[in-house]
Amino acid sequence: MSLMPKRVLHRKQQRGRMKGLASRGNTVSFGEYGLQSQDTAWVTARQLEACRVAATHYLHREGRIYIRVFPDKPITKKPMETRMGTGKGEVEEWVAVVKPGMILFEVAGVDENTAKGAFSRMAAKLPVSCRMVHRRLAARKGA
Amino acid sequence: METLKAKVRTEQGTHKARRLRKTGTIPGVLYGHGEKTVSISMDTHDISLAISRGERLLELDLEGGRSNVLVKKVQYDPFGKDILHVDFTRVDLDELVEVQVPVTLRGTPAGAAEGGVLHQNFAQVKIRCKVKDIPDDIRVSVAEMKVNDRIYMRDMKLPDGSTLLEDKDAILCALSVVAEEIVEPVAGAEVAEVVASAEPEVIGEKKREEAEAAEASEKASEKAEKKAEKKAEKE
C-alpha cells in the first residue's frame, strides 16, 4: 500500500512553489549509501512504492532500505470533461516535494556495487535525475 | 602532519565570503586555548585535498606563525560536494580531545550463510584521547557472529589511553534474520473497506461533527419539550 498521512490538518492544499535547494535532509544519516536528487519535482507515493519494490527485489532481502521522504502533500484533480468552477477537485494522489540535494533513499548492509545496482533501478522509477552518494564520516585516512 | 597555508581574513559576511569562494579560497575560523578568534582564508584545493585524505590534525601556517590545529567542523554545500567553511581549533599534541571516530566492521559474519543480515547501529563513536593518538578508525571483527548475536559498545577494543563517551550498553551491531513479508489475500468486502479508509482523518473535523450532532440533538429535545408544554396547556 502506498504511503500517505494518517491524519491531516487540511484535506486539500494549494500548489505552492518549489524554489531553492534542500537545506535539510541532504546528508546520508542512516545507511552507508544514499540516492540524492539533482532536480526539483513532486515525487508521488506510487513512484516511491515502485522504487521500494524494485530495490527489495534486487537486493533479495539483503541489507536494509530507508525511505527518507514522505508524501504528505495532497494533489487534487477535477474529473474528465467537467466544466470549470464548482470548487476544488478531489484528492487524486499524495506527493513529496523534492528539492535538489535531498536524499531520497538510503541503503545499508550491502557492498557498494549492490547498492549501485539498487539505486539505478530506483532512479529509473523517479521523475528526477539522481546520483549515488556515500555517507560522510568523521575524517578517515585513505577514504 | 600536513602543513596548510592560510591568511588572516579581514572581510566578513555572506557576500564577501561568497566573493572569496569565487576566487578559489575558502573562509575559515581559528579558535581555542583562550586566545583570540581569528578569521582566516585558505586555498580551496589544499584544504579539499587534506580533508579528502582524511587528515584531521594539521599544521597551520598563518602568515609565518605555525601552530597545530584540529579540524573541528566542515560545512558543505547542499549537494555535499564543495566545502564552504572550515573551523579549526588550536591544540597541543598531548592534549585530551573529544572526537568522532568511524567504526569499521571487519569480516563476514558466520551467521550470514544462514540468512543473517548485519545491522550497524553506530557508524561512528565519540571518544576522548590525546591528539597525537587519534585513531583513523576503530575496527571490530564480526567474523564469529552467529544469527541473533549482538556486539555492544563495551565489547569494542579502543586504543590505549582512549575513553569511550557513548552509552556502553548500546548495541553497536546485530546479526538478525529479516522476516518475510506475509501478503494475505484481501476479500471483496475488505477491499471496499480499504478504499473507503484511504482518506486520512482531518484533525478537528471529528470534534466539529460531534459538536454539530450534540447541538442538533439539543435543539430536537428543546422542540419536543415545547410541544409537550403546548399540549399540556391545551389540555
What is the secondary structure topology, with strand pairs?
The complex is a heterodimer of chains A (143) and B (235).
Chain A: E1 7-8, E2 33-37, E3 41-44, H1 45-59, E4 64-67, E5 73-77, E6 90-98, E7 103-108, H2 112-123, E8 130-134
Antiparallel strand pairs in A: 2-7, 2-8, 3-6, 4-7, 5-6
Helix pairs in contact in A: 1-2
Chain B: E1 2-8, H1 14-22, E2 25-31, E3 38-43, H2 44-52, E4 57-62, E5 65-76, E6 83-90, E7 96-106, E8 116-120, E9 124-130, E10 138-141, E11 150-152, E12 163-164, E13 171-177, H3 188-196, E14 201-202, H4 205-234
Parallel strand pairs in B: 1-4, 2-6, 7-10
Antiparallel strand pairs in B: 1-3, 2-3, 4-5, 5-6, 7-9, 8-13, 9-12, 11-13
Characterise this structure:
The complex is a heterodimer of chains A (143) and B (235). Chain A has two helices and eight strands; from the N terminus they run E-E-E-H-E-E-E-E-H-E. By secondary structure, chain A is of the alpha+beta class. In chain A, the strands form two sheets. Chain A has a four-stranded antiparallel β-sheet with strand order 4-7-2-8, covered by helices on one side. In chain A, strands 3-6-5 form a three-stranded antiparallel β-sheet. In chain A, helix 1 packs antiparallel against helix 2. By secondary structure, chain B is α+β, with helices and mostly antiparallel strands. Chain B has four helices and 14 strands. In chain B, the strands form three sheets. Chain B has a six-stranded mixed beta barrel. The longest helix of chain B has 30 residues. Chain B is flat. The chains are: A alpha+beta (143), B alpha+beta (235). The interface between A and B is medium-sized, with 36 and 34 residues.
